[in-house]
Amino acid sequence: METHIDYLKKALEYFEYSFEKVKTLPKHVKDLDHESLETWKSFAARFARASDLFLGKYLRGKILESDPGFRGSFRDMLNQGAKLGFIEDETTWLKIRELRNTVAHEYNNQAFDDYISFLLKYAPHIISIKELIKR
Length: 135
Description:
This protein is mainly alpha-helical.
């Protein structure tokens, strides 16, 4: 578990760095130059990496420590994580996972504009992971 926590901490550090960079960038693809688009894509990748490490490694590991017999679906894992107090809102984390999966490969302007909006809306939840893993 310690290895997963170390990877997660590093991913969160990179994510926060990228978050600070994108705060000053335009929010619409049509307004982005190549460098800005690359910065947004890096931020999106770091969002995905941090959320994957948190949900797939850390949260699952914590649940299995509490209940070694747990064998539920992803949704069951989120519900169990909320019941055990590891996360506050399973709906938010489900939304993070679902949208991350569906938009990851779409590159038309409207889809990417929506994705940017989503990333900015849910970035604080990713950053809050730091507090969750301190407990």
